[in-house]
């Protein structure tokens, strides 16, 4: 299908061309490319909603020799999320980097490669292709973190690189071991072959699956393998942080989700207590660190660590009777968190810019001076806390439903506690923003931002409103995921 | 010999483990990058070894390993570039 | 227009203006005022229509699926309309008052934007057709009231706001727990006349009791049931119109309304009685009534005294709910309306005292009756109403509650009501005595004589309390007419108890 080719290849193409173009032409090309990507994603979504999921063989070579791409509801929703967030982040970055042409020069090609990798990842249907796309995404992401050239960011980027490579190493070894046993890396074929493994194969499989999951845990920043995330996301450019927290981290989890649903759900049930434990630890400890942090972007970064915890917490529920609500919770959480987190990072970026420093204590009076950015931050926070109406609330609702239906009451307490802790760190910022700063002259002087910052604030607001609007999209999303979702 | 692939595979996994451990434990970035490369080589070795179980040469696994090598090179290059930049910044007495 | 869309439009009459007001520049006073008033009036118009229809037995319902087994549903039954009408009318007055109060204030666009959101949330709470929708608007109310409480932006405001948030958000978490438990076990949380849990065999008795405790506890925070009332006095850092709104109209009443819905339409009065839940509720409500009045005695700050008075008075509604029988129910429901009118008058007056004379404490109120006669007259009428003096709305509700207590064989409740009236007198009469009988001080803390209008205050600030005070008396005189809140409460009780063999 043309849309598939476009959505994967176009970003690579415009990314490469953008390297060579003079500065003034870069953004228009990228913008056009992003719009094209959005259209393709929408087209694919419509296709899937009306005609159901389908498989696309690249170059008409089908598995096991060729590469199959699977287009189903889950893939398409992640694709759409990616294109939209990238579009808005790109607009934001264009305004943000007006003063830094050098960084701007390299941002576009890297964005292109990142997008190419992400799009291919969401569509992949075999283990090795997933590895390749994971690597493309990882390398692009690392480079984006290092873009500013500051020492702290280079350090963070290096740390991120090592972590991501460790993760992919584990993943690749796991893939190799599976390939060694079954002779194929296609997920569909493997699913049939793994039906009823005999004893020695079972042990071998469990080790392999363990390798793959741990590898992906590195990349998804599940506690305790999250150590690389706060410096990387907290220090990078706001647009980069938005992309990373919203999309890259989700991409790794997406793979775990896919493999769980289609390949080894029943086998990995062994890992349930571990995933519950790590998920709960991520939620509680991540939130706690967010409450403690005194730099705004660190708060948002630790919030990501906590929110990833929710995803992994819900994962084992997919193998219980509570599978429908669990799947609904996971898919809504991925999308809602992606949108809200991107909005939050963008809002935080503006707040940090105008308060000349990243500390929360410096944000006094922001509610009057940057009302739009603050409102966007607050709305995004509402979704993260899980207050209605928002996508985060829907995700929380279904997560709690799934937990109660499978009887894991302690985890219900963890999820509720996580929400309250999120409220703590979000309102901590908002409270200070509402307190007028001591040197506030006349309160009738208002917004002191300039025009580009106003536009940036509107972009953040757009995403924040989207996160709230997602609160009304629970049913359409459920229907979309249900079309052709793996059983 | 019909079991040679097992020896290669075990060696590969051993290399993987050594590389993995070294990457975590070492302090200097350069060491980490080298360790990661060793880890990668281990994986590639196991890949090929396991793929050629039946005694025949398996082209698919070789294709995959080639891709993997390319990725490893790119990743190492990035890592080295970052390390170099760090060194330059340290020498310049960064900002 | 399809039936259910009227309900959505009712929400939109305050939601859309909120959105517009947020983006209006500060100086667009006329436009903002027009929007506010227009929205309030159109809301009243729709409500008027709904009242007529529902009295004749029409039903209105709107529903939207938020997701599998999660339904957002609105309905306009008699109970909903009671609360909606109260909210809308009082909103109109509070808007007028707030426009006057904040005339020189800052961040007015932000204020009125969130103000409108508050009303939207309150109306949503009133019209929620199931507990899930109730919860959604409940949390929305918390969010919408936050910027209003934090409006003044001083460092001292911060503490009050933090307390407010802690209480309400924790309450929200507990509510969610109870709600989800209910929802997953029964598959829905629809408000049904007579309750639906009785017919449901999913829960054991002790589970039902626990569920009751969770839900009532959560809702009780907003309603300031002791010991969950701690946030209310602290929230007095808000400007007067906000306190008026919170205590008379929105937050506290929402909590009380929640208790009514949960007891009557989730559990059902029969089930609650048989599980022995009504007695503890009555006890806690009674304790709150007495404790609130007791604390009020020792407060010198006027708003603080009124805050504790609210703690006490709001529990009358819970008490009425806990009295098994239609008379108690009627008493509780009619008090919902009457207390709202009286309390808002008191807060309007408190605001006027602070605004014109910078008087915040009762000890500063000597002779204030001569300086600000209209305000003090309104205050006096409302205070008498709180005491339950004849010819005031408070008398009517107290009468019905007392009778309801006898009918339910809970005579001790009547004693509690008498003691409470006594305490009310004890903390209101001294204020009235000071205001009218003591000589004026030589100087007031800070006089702000209005540029236009009379020396007392602006008309915008005098009108609302005067009207609501007048209403207090009117409600009592015309209590027996078919248009009074009392008649409406009787209608609700009739429909509620018609399912039961009495």
Summarize this structure briefly.
Chain A is mainly alpha-helical. Chain A has helices at 2-20, 23-51, 73-96, 101-123, 127-145, 151-182, 187-193, 199-220, 229-235, 238-264, 272-292, 296-314, 323-354, 366-369, 371-385, 391-405, 409-434, 451-469, 474-482; strands at 54-57, 68-71.
Question: Can you offer a commentary on this structure?
Answer:
The complex is a heterotrimer of chains A (487), B (95) and C (502). Chain A has 487 residues and is mainly alpha-helical. Chain A has 2 domains: 254 residues, no CATH class; 223 residues, no CATH class. Chain A is 76% helix and 2% strand. Chain A has 19 helices and 2 strands. A two-stranded antiparallel ribbon of chain A has the order 1-2. In chain A, helix 10 packs antiparallel against helix 13 and helix 13 packs antiparallel against helix 18. The two termini of chain A are 25 Å apart. About 1% of the residues of chain A have low confidence. Chain B has 95 residues and is mainly alpha-helical. Chain B is built from 3 helices and no strands. By secondary structure, chain C is mostly helical. Chain C has a domain of 179 residues. Chain C starts with a helix and ends in a 5-residue tail after the last helix. The chains are: A mainly alpha (487), B mainly alpha (95), C mainly alpha (502). Chains in contact: A-B, A-C. Chains A and C meet through helix 13, helix 15, helix 16, helix 17 and helix 19 of A and strand 1, helix 5 and helix 6 of C.
Strand elements of chain C, count: 2
Q: Specify the helix fraction band of chain B.
A: over 70%
Give the neighbour order of strands across the main sheet of chain C.
Answer: 1-2
Strand fraction of chain C = under 5%
Rg of chain B, Å, rounded: 17 Å
CATH class of chain B: Mainly Alpha
- Category by helix and strand content of chain C: mainly alpha
Multimer state: heterotrimer
Q: Which two chains share the most extensive interface?
A: A-C, 43 and 40 residues
């Amino acid at each position: 299908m043309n849309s598939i080719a476009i959505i994967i290849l176009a970003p690579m193409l415009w990314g490469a061309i953008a390297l060579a173009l003079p500065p003034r032409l870069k953004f228009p090309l990228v913008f056009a490319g992003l719009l094209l990507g959005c259209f393709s994603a929408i087209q694919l979504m419509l296709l899937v909603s009306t005609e159901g999921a389908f498989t696309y063989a690249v170059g008409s070579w089908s598995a096991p020799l060729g590469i199959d791409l699977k287009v189903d509801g889950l893939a398409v929703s992640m694709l759409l999320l990616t294109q939209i967030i990238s579009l808005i982040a790109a607009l934001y970055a264009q305004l943000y980097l007006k003063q830094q042409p050098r960084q701007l020069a390299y941002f576009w090609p890297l964005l292109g490669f990142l997008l190419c990798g992400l799009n291919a990842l969401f569509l992949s249907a075999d283990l090795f292709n997933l590895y390749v796309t994971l690597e493309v995404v990882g390398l692009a992401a690392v480079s984006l973190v290092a873009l500013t050239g500051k020492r702290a960011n280079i350090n963070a980027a290096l740390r991120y690189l090592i972590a991501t490579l460790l993760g992919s190493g584990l993943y690749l070894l796991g893939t190799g071991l599976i390939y060694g046993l079954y002779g194929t890396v296609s997920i569909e074929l493997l699913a049939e072959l793994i039906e009823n493994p005999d004893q020695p194969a079972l042990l071998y499989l469990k080790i392999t699956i363990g390798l793959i999951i741990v590898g992906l845990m590195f990349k998804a920043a599940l506690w305790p393998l999250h150590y690389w995330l706060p410096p990387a996301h907290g220090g990078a450019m706001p647009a980069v942080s938005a992309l990373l927290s919203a999309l890259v981290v989700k991409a790794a989890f997406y793979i775990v989700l896919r493999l769980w649903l289609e390949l080894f759900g029943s086998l990995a049930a062994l890992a349930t207590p571990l995933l519950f434990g790590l998920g709960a630890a991520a939620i509680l400890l991540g939130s706690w660190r967010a409450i403690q942090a005194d730099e705004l972007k660190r708060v948002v970064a630790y919030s990501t660590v906590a929110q990833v915890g929710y995803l992994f917490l819900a994962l084992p529920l997919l193998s219980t009777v509570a599978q429908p609500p669990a799947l609904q919770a996971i898919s809504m959480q991925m999308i809602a968190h992606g949108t809200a987190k991107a909005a939050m990072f963008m809002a935080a970026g503006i707040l940090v810019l105008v308060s000349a420093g990243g500390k929360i204590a410096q944000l006094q009076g922001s509610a009057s001076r940057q009302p739009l950015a603050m409102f966007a931050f607050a709305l995004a926070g509402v979704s993260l806390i899980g207050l209605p109406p928002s996508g985060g609330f829907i995700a929380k609702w279904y997560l709690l439903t799934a937990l109660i239906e499978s009887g894991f009451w302690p985890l219900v307490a963890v999820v509720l506690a996580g929400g309250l802790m999120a409220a703590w760190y979000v309102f901590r910022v908002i409270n200070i923003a509402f307190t007028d700063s001591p040197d506030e002259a006349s309160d009738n002087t208002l917004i002191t931002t300039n025009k580009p910052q106003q536009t940036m604030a509107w972009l953040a607001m757009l995403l924040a409103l989207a996160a709230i609007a997602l609160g009304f999209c629970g049913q359409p999303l459920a229907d979309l995921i249900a079309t052709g979702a793996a059983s | 010999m019909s079991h040679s692939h097992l020896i290669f595979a075990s060696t590969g996994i051993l290399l993987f483990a050594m590389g993995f451990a070294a990457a975590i434990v070492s302090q200097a970035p350069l060491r980490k990058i080298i360790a990661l490369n060793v880890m990668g080589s281990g994986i590639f070795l196991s890949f090929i070894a396991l793929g050629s179980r039946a005694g025949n040469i398996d082209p698919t696994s070789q294709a995959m390993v080639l891709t993997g090598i390319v990725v490893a090179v790119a990743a190492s290059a990035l890592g080295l570039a970052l390390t170099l930049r760090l060194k330059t910044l340290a020498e310049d007495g960064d900002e | 227009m399809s039936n259910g869309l009227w309900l959505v439009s009712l929400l939109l009459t305050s939601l859309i203006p909120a959105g517009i007001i947020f983006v209006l520049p500060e100086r667009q006073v006329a436009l903002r005022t027009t929007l506010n008033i227009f929205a309030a009036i159109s809301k009243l118009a729709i409500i008027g229509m709904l009242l007529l229809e529902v009295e004749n037995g029409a039903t209105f319902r709107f529903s939207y699926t938020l997701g599998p087994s999660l339904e957002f549903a609105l309905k306009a039954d008699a109970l909903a309309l009671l609360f909606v009408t109260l909210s809308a009318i009082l909103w109109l007055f509070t808007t007028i008052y707030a426009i006057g109060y904040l005339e020189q204030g800052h961040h007015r666009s932000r204020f009125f934007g969130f103000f409108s959101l508050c009303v939207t949330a309150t109306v949503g709470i009133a019209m929620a057709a199931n507990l899930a929708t109730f919860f959604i608007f409940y949390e929305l109310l918390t969010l919408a009231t936050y910027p209003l409480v934090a409006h003044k932006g001083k460092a001292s405001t911060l503490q009050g706001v933090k307390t407010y948030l802690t209480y309400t958000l924790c309450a929200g978490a507990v509510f969610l727990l109870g709600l989800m438990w209910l929802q997953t076990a029964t598959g829905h949380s629809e408000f049904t006349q007579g309750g639906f849990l009785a017919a449901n065999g999913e829960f054991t008795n002790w589970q039902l009791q626990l569920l009751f405790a969770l839900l009532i506890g959560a809702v009780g925070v907003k309603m300031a049931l002791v010991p969950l009332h701690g946030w209310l006095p602290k929230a007095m850092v808000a400007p007067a119109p906000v306190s008026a709104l919170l205590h008379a109209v929105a937050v506290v009443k929402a909590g009380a309304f929640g208790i009514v819905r949960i007891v009557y339409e989730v559990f059902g009065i029969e089930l609650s009685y048989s599980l022995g839940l009504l007695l503890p509720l009555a006890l806690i409500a009674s304790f709150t009534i007495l404790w609130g009045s007791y604390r009020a005695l020792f407060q010198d700050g006027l708003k603080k005294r009124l805050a504790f008075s609210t703690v006490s008075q709001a529990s009358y509604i819970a008490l009425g709910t806990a009295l098994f029988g239609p008379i108690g129910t009627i008493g509780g429901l009619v008090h919902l309306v009457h207390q709202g009118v009286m309390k808002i008058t008191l807060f309007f007056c408190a605001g006027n005292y602070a605004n014109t004379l910078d008087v915040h404490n009762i000890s500063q109120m000597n002779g204030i009756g001569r300086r600000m006669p209209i305000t003090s007259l309104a205050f006096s009428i409302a205070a008498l109403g709180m005491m339950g003096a004849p010819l005031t709305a408070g008398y009517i509700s107290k009468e019905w509650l007392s009778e309801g207590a006898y009918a339910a064989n809970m005579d001790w409740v009547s004693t509690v009501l008498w003691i409470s009236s006594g305490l009310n007198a004890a903390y209101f009469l001294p204020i009235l005595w000071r205001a009218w009988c003591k000589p004026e001080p030589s100087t007031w803390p800070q006089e702000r004589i209005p540029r236009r209008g009379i020396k007392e205050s602006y008309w915008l600030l005098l009108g609302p309390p005067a009207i609501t005070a007048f209403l207090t008396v009117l409600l009592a005189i015309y209590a027996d007419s078919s248009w009074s809140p009392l008649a409406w409460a009787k209608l609700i009780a009739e429909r509620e108890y018609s399912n039961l063999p009495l």
